[in-house]
Write a structure and sequence with these properties.
- By secondary structure, the chain is α/β, with parallel strands linked by helices.
- It folds into 2 domains: 145 residues, Quinone Oxidoreductase, Chain A, domain 1 (Alpha-Beta Complex), CATH 3.90.180.10; 139 residues, 3-Layer(aba) Sandwich (Rossmann fold), CATH 3.40.50.
- The chain has 8 helices and 16 strands.
- The strands form 3 sheets. Strands 3, 5, 6, 7, 8, 15 and 16 form a 7-stranded mixed sheet that branches. Strands 11-10-9-12-13-14 form a 6-stranded parallel sheet, sandwiched between helices. It has a 3-stranded antiparallel sheet with strand order 2-1-4, with no helix packed on it.
- β9, α3 and β10 form a beta-alpha-beta unit.
- α2 crosses α3 and α2 packs across α7.
- Bound molecules: NADP nicotinamide-adenine-dinucleotide phosphate.
- The site of NADP nicotinamide-adenine-dinucleotide phosphate has 31 residues, from α1, α2 and α3.
């Protein structure tokens, strides 16, 4: 079968190669991959001296969707549509940039009725993080006011904008890509602001309270600025670190405005949480034009260049991979 392999045994090589179809182990599922998605983490895995990849050679792809070919779980007979993500898929173990993959049962989610493998990968890990972020904010309380979304043209950000709008909230998109304003409004943003506008009154301990909630995949100074500008009792769902892993903050937002820093992880999400996320995605996407969320569909041969674009921050929205395309 064809697969996109990252090999740093002797210098870094990222190529489409022919490899044997994987054999299914005990408590594993063999999946015919129909679609995979491109995520920021994939770009990190495919870098020289990657801090994320845990082996010199593997097939990339942190998520995929398709149908079960073989499993020993009676709840997953051949033909069941599934999504595969999480654990060390595409990080320490062969991932979704291939025509077939095997994965432990725990990383496999049967897709809810109405959600096709294509639409599941239009979401992918980015969409799961966006959905988990929205649910974390909704679980905290009513979102009465504007909800900030940072990194808004990226995978997590653009989907969060669409999900928030589809669920009746008022997303404000923050972006470093000024030309993307119309694109973000079309996805449901009520207004668009620049990256620099997230920082409010940096000379003061606290900024003006202005956000009923926030979805942040940027981290670093952006996350610190958001904490200073949340409304009383509001939360920020933090999932990413594209601007850096460090946060310099004070305790004032927490002890004077009762705000919450809500951690988001979908990679190690337990089965119950995965089920809830896919169910809520299917329910929300019923009212959304999913094809509009997919920016581009590529074959394995275009992956290397696309991962470069992702690192350079020039990719908008979701890019899907069809492993059968030549
Ligand atoms: N916790 C989890 O379970 C989970 C799951 C999925 C993803 N993530 C993390 O979430 C983050 C985003 O992932 P993604 O797949 O959405 O990535 P992505 O598609 O590359 O999007 C990231 C966006 O952030 C903005 N950005 C890029 N560099 C920036 C910088 N230096 N400063 C400020 N903003 C910058 C850009 O948007 P604008 O140009 O619009 O500003 C970019 O499109 C990553 O850190 C990823 O590892 C976490």
């Amino acid at each position: 079968m064809r697969a996109f392999q990252i090999d740093e045994s002797d210098g870094l090589h990222c190529d489409v190669v022919d490899v044997p179809t994987p054999a299914r182990g005990d408590d594993e599922v063999l999946v015919d991959v129909q679609w995979s998605g491109v995520n920021y983490k994939d770009a990190m895995v495919a870098e020289a001296h990657s801090r994320v990849r845990r082996t010199p050679r593997l097939i990339g792809g942190v998520d995929a969707a398709g149908v079960v070919v073989d499993s020993d779980d009676p709840d997953l007979p051949a033909g069941t549509p599934v999504a595969v993500h999480g654990g060390v898929l595409g990080v320490a173990r062969d991932g979704g940039f291939a025509e077939r993959l095997t994965a432990p049962r725990a990383w496999i989610s049967p897709l809810p009725a109405g959600l096709s493998p294509h639409d599941a990968m239009a979401m992918g890990t980015a969409g799961l993080a966006a959905m988990a972020s929205v649910l974390a904010l909704e679980d905290r309380g009513p979102l009465d006011g504007e909800v900030l979304v940072t990194g808004a043209t990226g995978g997590v950000g653009s989907i969060a904008v669409s999900l928030l709008a589809a669920r009746g909230h008022r997303p404000v998109a923050s972006t470093g890509s000024p030309a993307a304003g119309e694109w973000l409004l079309a996805r449901g943003a009520t207004r668009v602001i620049g990256r620099d506008e997230v920082a409010d009154r940096p000379d003061r301990v606290l900024g003006t309270p202005q956000w009923a909630g926030a979805v942040d995949c940027v981290g670093g100074a952006t996350l610190a600025s958001i904490l200073r500008s949340l409304n009383y009792g509001a939360g920020v769902a933090a999932s990413g670190l594209v601007a850096g892993p460090e946060i310099a903050t004070t305790v004032y937002p927490f002890i004077t405005r009762n705000v919450a820093l809500l951690g988001i992880d979908v990679v190690e999400a337990p089965a119950g949480m995965r089920k809830r996320l896919w169910h809520e995605l299917a329910r929300t996407l019923a009212t959304v034009d999913v094809t509009a969320l997919v920016e581009r569909t590529i074959g394995l041969g275009e992956l290397s260049a696309t991962l470069d674009d992702l690192r350079a921050g020039t990719v908008r929205g979701r890019v899907l991979v069809d492993p059968a395309a030549h």
